[in-house]
Amino acid sequence: MSETRFDFKGKTVFISGASRGIGLAIGVRLAALGANVAIAAKTAEPHPKLPGTIFSAAKEIEAAGGRALPLVCDIRFEDQVEAAIAKTVATFGGLDILINNASAISLTPMTETPMKKFDLMNQINGRGTYLCTLKALPHLCESAKKGRNPHVLTLSPPLDMRPMWFEGHTAYSIAKYNMSLCTLGLSEEFKQYGIAVNSLWPLTAVATSAMTVIIPNPEDPPEELKYRNTDIMADAAAIMLSQNARIYTGQFVIDEALLRKSGVTDFSVYKINKNCPDDELAPDFFVPDDIYEHGNQAAVLRDFVRPTIKAKL
C-alpha cells in the first residue's frame, strides 16, 4: 500500500444507500476532503423507524464542505440507476468513485425466508452492485483516461465459504457474498482500464440505525454500547480510495487491519462506549481467521469472534 494522500478535491463520488449509516459517514468524510457526493437512495420521505432522508444527508455533506446531489434511486431498477448516474455526471462533469453501499439483510433461516425476501436481498445486494458498476463503468473509464484515479469500493466481506457463515441465514450470505464476487471478478476485468475494484468490511459491529431495527437488543446495558461508530469505516474508505488505482485493486480489506497498517494505534475513538474492553466489542459476521496475518496484531486476539457470533444466533 502506498503512502496515503487524501486528494479528493473536485472528484465526484456516487454512493448507493447513502441516506444514513456507513454510506452517509463515508460521504461526509469525502466531502470534508473536497469531494462532490451524489446520494442515491430510496428515502425521500422520513422512514417510520429509521432516521434520515437523501435531503437530510445532503445537508450533512454540504455542512462538511462538499457539494451534494440527492437522488431518489431504487437500485433494483436499471432505468433509475442509469438516470441517477447520468444526472450525477451532468451536474458535476464526471464520475470518479463508485461506492456500492446499499444492502438488504434478513438473518433468517430458509423456513423464515420466503422468495419475496430472498429476491429483495439478491436484487439489492449482488444485482444492485453489478448494475451500479455497469452503469458507472463508461464514466469511470473517462476518469481513468484523465488520470483521476477512479475506484469502485463495495462494502462486502472477504470470501469465505465455510458453512458457519451460511448456517441460519443462507439467503443473506448468498446475497452478501455476491457483492464480493463482483469485486473478485471485476477487479481483474477493470485492470485494463486502470480502475480499482476493492471491498471493505468492519471487524466489529458498527452502530447504525438499521442495526438496531434488524437485531433489537433488550439487554441492559444495550448491545449497541459494544459497537463502534461509523467513523472507522469512513476513515478506512478514505485511505483505500486514496491508493493508486492501477496498483491497489482486488483487495478485501477489514477496517481495523487497514488502519493499523496505516499507523493508527488508538481505536478507542471509534467506540460507542469508550469504557468497553476490546475483547467485549461485538464482532461482525464473515471476519476471516487470518485477519492480522499481514498486519500489526491487535493487543487482544480476535479468537472470540466465532463463538460470540454463534451465541447470538
> Strand order, biggest sheet?
3-2-1-4-5-6-7
> What is the helix tally?
9
Which range does the strand content fall in? 5-15%
Report the uncertain regions.
297-313
The succession of helices and strands, N to C, reads EHEHEHEHEHEHHEHH
Major β-sheet profile: 7 strands, parallel
Q: Per the principal axes of the C-alpha atoms, what is the gross shape?
A: globular
Task: Output mean pLDDT.
Answer: 89
Intertermini distance: 36 Å
Number of strands: 7
The structural class is: alpha/beta
Helix content: 25-40%
Global Rg:
18 Å
Offer a concise description of the structure.
With 313 residues, the chain is an alpha/beta fold. The protein has helices at residues 21-32, 54-63, 78-92, 115-145, 170-189, 209-214, 231-241, 255-261, 305-312, and strands spanning 12-16, 36-41, 67-72, 97-100, 151-154, 196-201, 252-254.
Write the layout of secondary structure elements.
Layout: E1 12-16, H1 21-32, E2 36-41, H2 54-63, E3 67-72, H3 78-92, E4 97-100, H4 115-145, E5 151-154, H5 170-189, E6 196-201, H6 209-214, H7 231-241, E7 252-254, H8 255-261, H9 305-312
Parallel strand pairs: 1-2, 1-4, 2-3, 4-5, 5-6, 6-7
